[in-house]
Amino acid sequence: MYLYRNLLPVRYILYYSVFFLVMLFSCENDEKADNKKEAQLGGEREFVPGDLSIGIVDSVTIKEAWQLVNSFDLKITDAWGHKYLSNLPYDSIDYIISYLNKKPYINYGMWKAVKNGNVYFDRNFNKISVSCRLSNVLPEIQEDWFKVVEVLKLYEVPTNTKVFYLNVSVGYELLWKDTFEDEKIIRWASPNYYSEIHPF
User: Fold this and answer.
1) What confidence tens digit (pLDDT) does each residue in 55-67 have?
2) Among 72, 94, 128, 162, which one has the highest count of C-beta atoms within 10 angstroms of its own C-beta?
């Protein structure tokens, strides 16, 4: 009887250990199955028709990236994440903001030039920094932007946040995604996938 009582805790320990291991492997298998299912369904995720986003390699200038997109005769609806520094003196910041906001492709809704927002004095460089979002970037807008760069004495600095939003033909989004992913100056390309919002 004494021996039986001493063996009871050992039996419980073994039982719970086996139960725990079974549950652990079961959870891992379920997770792998879920990941596999998600990967299989990835190609079936819904996205906004005609929308494509591309990320630009940090060392590539906005001019080079625009030339690539223009070669495909695609429309750039938005360009953002680029960074310029100005060789104008610090006290020119208000002039720079005023000049930028005269451009309808910059002063567009909430994306206008704002002091201490997308236009500010960058202490790391001791220069005025300009990071304005550009909208509806047609070839003529691109040419105008290069004039702005000259007038405001801007020069581009590398950044890994450069993104373009493009319009592509509906039904060809994944084809364009593959096309851009094959380009050396493109970091990534993706359709504009819908996101599921779960209520809590």
Assistant:
1) 999 999 999 999 9
2) 128
